[in-house]
Amino acid sequence: MPVYLKMADNPHTWGIIELQGDLESRNGGALQSQFVGDLHYGMQSNGVPTLIVGHHILYGKAVPLEKPFAVMEKKKTDINTEYIIKALVDRKLVFKIRPKPIIAAVPGC
Predict the structure, then answer these.
(1) How far apart are CA 3 and CA 91, in angstroms?
(2) Do 68 and 88 form a contact (C-beta atoms < 8 A)?
(3) pLDDT, tens digit, for every residue of 19-50?
(4) 88-107: b or e for each residue (b if 16 or more CB lie within 10 Å)?
């Protein structure tokens, strides 16, 4: 059975976020399709990835992957199977330092 690989017209470049430890919701529900936090990465943060989750801030670093991943879409017909490469994952943002609490200054204390 022949399997064909085909690049999309303009495959996107994606990244992975790697967190150390557990990420849990307050109510114990699933995190799928839920807002988790704010990610700041780029010129505004001097190239240091910063993730704000609730009242915690995490600082990370950008690391290239040794072996890139391909995100593929499977198209199956009666005759053959074809995989279309939609995106390439070539880097990851690693957050492995413990989160620091964000403490707001309260006036009059």
Answers:
(1) 27
(2) yes
(3) 988 888 778 788 888 888 899 887 666 778 99
(4) ebeebbbbeeebeeeeeeee
| Tokens of residue 65, six digits | 């992957």
SS3 label, residue 98: coil
Quote the CA–CA distance of 58 and 94 in Å, as a whole number: 10
Q: Specify the pLDDT at position 61.
A: 92
pTM for this one? 0.71
**Could you please report the per-residue DSSP string of 10-56?**
EEEEEEEEEESS----TTS---TT----EEE-SGGGTT--EEEETTE
Angstrom distance (rounded) from CA 66 to CA 54: 32
Which residue has 């790697």 as its token pair?
Answer: 18
Question: By the 8 A CB rule, do 58 and 95 touch?
Answer: yes
Residue 50's beta-bridge partner residues? 40, 59
Give the torsion sign (CA, 78, 81, 87, 91): positive
